[in-house]
Sequence to fold (313 residues):
Amino acid sequence: MFEKLQKKWKVNGWQLLAILCTFAIGGSLTGIVGRKILQQLPELHPLGWTLLYIITMTLIWPLMVVLVSIPFGQFPFFKNYLLRIFQKMTNTPSSTPPSSIPPSSIPPSSIPPSSIPPFSLAIFASGTGSNAQKIIEHFRNHPSIRVALVVSNKATAGVLDKAVAAGIPTLLIEKERFFRGDGFVAELTNHGIDFIVLAGFLWKVPPSLIQAYPSRMINIHPALLPKYGGKGMYGNFVHEAVIAAGEKESGITIHYVDEQYDHGGTIFQATCPVFPEDTPEALANRIHELEHQHFPAVIESVILSKLVKNQSS
Fold:
């Protein structure tokens, strides 16, 4: 049952626990507050009191779960959850996918599908592709954005299997041409790629590729830049450095890509605590939760902003 809920809501185990606690506490508070309100009213006929009780609880429950969701860190989930309930009740079509959208995002409904072709997205990754998987799921059936290509520098990378399973074309790149040739720009152009996302891609991006995609390439880093960035700072090397420095918090940074390691303009950051007993693996798990929660939504926000800008120009 719990695994089905995780898949349905696209959350990890800790998020599911927080969501269920929010439901439980919010429901209890709804009952307490509702009874307090009804006790202040004059006596009614049992049928009238029952109807009034149902109406009162229906109105109070959303407020209670939203309030409880804030300290549990699940406000984005419940905001979208309640919005979907309202849309079903009013038969209103959904304009945003059920995910954590940053406040600056633009709903897909603001982009008329017929006016501009969908943005084609390429994901560059070197490993198993857990972030890539979340991105692929997020943009499945999206009206304005599609994942058109998955690129890797490793023939054995698990991300390639995930792409094949999702029916997405793949491209395996080799070092010499990537760094000293054209950066595979010709292949990206042939696939109609408009935007590039680095999701655990361990090679430095060459100038030829950056120049071909100015302000259209973003990366995610597992720390709060400008700290703990630069050459060799990836994976557990980052988390080891954060713990060794005695930091109280870490997090993720989503940023544009330029000619320097982890240097381009910051788009979004999210934080998590670093505990005294943390190991690099424990901190990595917490960072992965932030990546999976925020990266797809931030990508969507950035691309839709560009679509709106293109539409108005």
Notes: Confidence is low (pLDDT under 50) at residues 92-106. The chain has eleven helices and seven strands.
